């Protein structure tokens, strides 16, 4: 049994600040600009001994059409429908607005338990706004400050009451702490703006979970969604479109791109989504190279495959560009999909899981050293200062990505070309296609020293 809590309110009242405080991380982008949050963002909230599922939502606008604001409002309404408790946040400093009153009326009709948080109550300027909040007819408002932590004890009491009510209604028993949960695979979907990342994830989930539309750059925050595929728990992470650095000028876009890069850093597998009609662009290669430098497994997905005419030419062009521009990582999986039509999505997920398994590969030390003697005999390293630079020993201290420690007589004199030879042989002999490989060079001890 998990309590579900949704934070709602008009734009720029401090919803994302509260979300970040309760999840204990700066997951949601925060800025003075109204309307930063657009999608439902989900996280694990924590307050003292309570644990709960938490939604951050877009600022509520009084629109019902098919505009971006209208679609954002529907995402917020879906969060309210899922919630066991709704936190309606108002700005006590500016006082109530007609928009606050409209949505308070909507929440009364929803029959969901509601707590009014009068935010920004850390000074006397907020006293009038706090008193105004009583007029919403949703019970006593909580004097609150998301930024400074004022009112958290009162919020805890409301959350505890809601948790106990849900447990009594469901007749469930909370699981004992310490039960081991299966590992969650983290897949980050990245790419340039408007290549179809959110549409692809919605199709995988089978619901309109993420905001989509013809406008480029709708997604700003990196939104993670828990999901299960073939009994394997997966966390899908949607990210903001990443343009070339020279074209990024607005502060919000810089924050969104930085958030997307963090998603890459913490992902297990990165799915780089391409537009089939545009192919593998320079910016795509920049994103792929960053993924490899971060040591993440990489899968290339060519989207919008349903509209491509010369398919052989497109896929040959992508593979050729990968071969020329990323020769250090051979065998990166390339999968063709259509997020809009839902084609070959199982193939994409299977490729991502295979890439994850390769990324986790651990090779036994005896096998590695037998391999090392064979490759050294077939192609010895270059001489160092007129003497043979012998390779003595190899081990794999870690996976994720596969990392190998190589002991040799003169590690500083072992050229990069020879390391590439060893890497290519490792990939071929131990079946490690498309995953980053790391070498740590160490000087072997001289037994006569």
UniProtKB/TrEMBL annotation:
GO BP annotation list: ribosome biogenesis
Domain of life: Bacteria
Residues engaged in binding GTP 2: 191-198, 238-242, 303-306
Presence of the UniProt keyword NADP in the record: no
GO molecular function, one term: GTP binding
Residue span(s) of domain EngA-type G: 3-167, 185-360
A Pfam family hit: MMR_HSR1
Claim: Mitochondrion is one of the keywords in the record: no
Keyword annotations of the record: GTP-binding, Nucleotide-binding, Repeat, Ribosome biogenesis
InterPro entries, sorted: G_ENGA, GTP-bd, GTPase_Der, KH_dom-like, KH_dom-like_a/b, P-loop_NTPase, Small_GTP-bd
Binding site for GTP 1: 9-16, 56-60, 119-122
Subunit structure: Associates with the 50S ribosomal subunit.
HAMAP family per the UniProt record, alphabetical: GTPase_Der
Family assignment from sequence similarity: Belongs to the TRAFAC class TrmE-Era-EngA-EngB-Septin-like GTPase superfamily. EngA (Der) GTPase family.
Reported function: GTPase that plays an essential role in the late steps of ribosome biogenesis.
Protein name as it appears in the record: GTPase Der
Originating species: Ferruginivarius sediminum
């Amino acid at each position: 049994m998990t309590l579900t809590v949704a934070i709602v309110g008009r734009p720029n009242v401090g919803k994302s600040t509260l979300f970040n405080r309760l999840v204990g991380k700066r997951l949601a982008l925060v800025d003075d600009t109204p309307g930063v949050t657009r999608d439902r963002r989900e996280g694990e909230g924590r307050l003292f001994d309570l644990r709960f599922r938490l939604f951050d939502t877009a600022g509520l606008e009084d629109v019902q059409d098919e505009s971006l604001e209208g679609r954002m409002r529907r995402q917020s309404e879906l969060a309210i429908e899922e919630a066991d408790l709704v936190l309606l946040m108002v700005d006590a400093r500016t006082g109530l607005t007609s928009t606050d009153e409209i949505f308070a009326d909507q929440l009364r009709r929803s029959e969901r338990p509601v707590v009014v948080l009068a935010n920004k109550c850390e000074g006397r300027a907020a006293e009038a706004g706090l008193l105004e909040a009583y007029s919403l007819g949703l019970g006593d408002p909580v004097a609150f400050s998301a930024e400074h932590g004022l009112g958290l004890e009162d919020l805890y009491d409301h959350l505890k009451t809601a948790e106990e009510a849900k447990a009594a209604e469901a007749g469930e028993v909370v699981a004992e702490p310490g039960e081991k949960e299966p590992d969650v695979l983290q897949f980050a979907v990245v790419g340039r703006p408007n290549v179809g990342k959110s549409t692809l994830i919605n199709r995988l989930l089978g619901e309109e979970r993420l905001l989509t539309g013809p406008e480029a750059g709708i997604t700003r925050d990196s939104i993670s969604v828990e999901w299960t595929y073939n009994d394997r728990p997966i966390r899908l992470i949607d990210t903001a479109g990443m343009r070339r650095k020279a074209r990024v000028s607005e502060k919000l876009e810089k924050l969104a791109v930085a958030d997307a890069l963090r998603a890459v850093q913490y992902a297990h597998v990165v799915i780089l989504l391409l537009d089939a009609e545009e192919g593998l662009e320079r910016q795509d290669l920049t994103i792929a190279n960053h993924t490899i430098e971060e040591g993440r497994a990489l899968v290339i997905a060519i989207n919008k495959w349903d509209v491509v005419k010369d398919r052989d030419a497109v896929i040959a062009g992508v593979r050729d560009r990968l071969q020329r521009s990323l020769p250090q990582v051979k065998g990166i999986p390339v999968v063709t999909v259509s997020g809009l039509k839902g084609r070959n999505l199982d193939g994409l997920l299977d490729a991502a899981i295979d890439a994850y398994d390769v990324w986790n590969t651990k090779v036994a030390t005896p096998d590695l050293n037998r391999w090392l003697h064979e490759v050294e005999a077939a192609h010895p390293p270059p001489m160092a200062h007129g003497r043979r630079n012998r390779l003595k020993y190899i081990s794999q201290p870690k996976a994720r990505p596969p990392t190998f420690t190589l002991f040799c007589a003169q590690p500083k004199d072992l050229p990069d070309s020879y390391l590439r030879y060893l890497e290519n042989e490792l990939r071929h002999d131990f079946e490690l296609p498309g995953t980053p490989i790391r070498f740590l060079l160490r000087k072997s001890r001289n037994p006569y020293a």
